[in-house]
Hints:
Elements: H1 2-19, H2 31-43, H3 48-64, E1 78-84, E2 93-99
Antiparallel strand pairs: 1-2
Helix pairs in contact: 1-3
Amino acid sequence: xxxxxxxxxxxxxxxxxxxxxxxxxxxxxxxxxxxxxxxxxxxxxxxxxxxxxxxxxxxxxxxxxxxxxxxxxxxxxxxxxxxxxxxxxxxxxxxxxxxxxxx
Length: 103
């Protein structure tokens, strides 16, 4: 889990640096920058479960660092479960997919 969180954090840090929006303090993090980060991560998403863990890890770090929950609202994505064919034992199977629907 620590490797996943470190990679998630480094990807956020690199994104903010590339965009020129890396604040001197975490409390100064711009919600619009977080929204842009989530948009980029969603467009490059290969594994929805990993994306959800990454966003959860980043949210936990920022909350622990003193960021307000309202500031972190953009750190979310819309997901729905899509049913797959039953497996060979007849058990139901689902996969999570990203949706563009608004909440």
